[in-house]
Design goal:
Elements lengths: L1 E2 L14 H16 L10 E9 L9 E10 L2 E9 L8 H7 L3 H5 L4 H12 L4 E3 L2 H14 L8 E3 L1 H10 L5
Parallel strand pairs: 2-5, 5-6
Antiparallel strand pairs: 1-4, 2-3, 3-4
Length: 171
């Protein structure tokens, strides 16, 4: 167990880890006053971040799932899976994600990755930057594989945006 203190270090490719950034933001919120807002009444949650081949869960595919199980602001477990999208990646996808066709080809099948992820997160709420984006992809994948996927969650983008807006400017 360790406090998550930075926003870097995808286990797979060395890229920034969004789940870690979300966990850091949540940990700061917990330190400032207790529970996370919204439907999240416990201090245990899954910080999640996906990489995808595009923006539309109806036609695009999950490329990577990154998640942290956080309890009382401390990372308990990490989950990281590349997913083989079974298609070639566009140049824009490679530039944005840092994941190449060769890396993706070595990823797990979506079914295996999703079943592992569902076991990892249990029924815990989700937390992330623009978490609804990730939730739509996860829900579609879970339902297409015959699983239900209903979760409460919190988007950390709003608190971060607010913090950036209220910070003083240093000349």
């Amino acid at each position: 167990m360790r406090k998550y203190q930075n926003c870097r270090g995808s286990a797979v490719s060395g890229r920034q880890a969004g789940a870690g950034c979300a966990a850091s933001t949540a940990a700061a919120l917990l330190q400032e006053g207790g529970n996370i807002e919204g439907n999240m009444t416990e201090n245990e949650y899954i910080a999640v971040d996906l990489e995808t081949t595009g923006l539309n869960p109806k036609v695009d595919r999950i490329l990577e799932i990154g998640a942290l199980l956080v309890r009382d602001g401390v990372v308990q477990e990490e989950f990281q899976r590349l997913v083989n999208p079974c298609c070639l990646l566009g140049e824009t996808t490679v530039q944005i994600t840092g994941i190449t066709d060769e890396m993706a080809a070595g990823g797990a099948e979506l079914k295996a990755a999703m079943e592992e992820f569902l076991d990892f997160c249990g029924g815990l709420p989700l937390l992330g930057h623009r978490v609804l984006f990730d939730y739509r992809f996860l829900k579609r994948a879970a339902v297409n594989l015959g699983h239900s996927f209903e979760r409460s969650g919190m988007d950390t983008l709003e608190p971060v945006s607010y913090t950036h807006l209220t910070l003083p400017t240093i000349a």
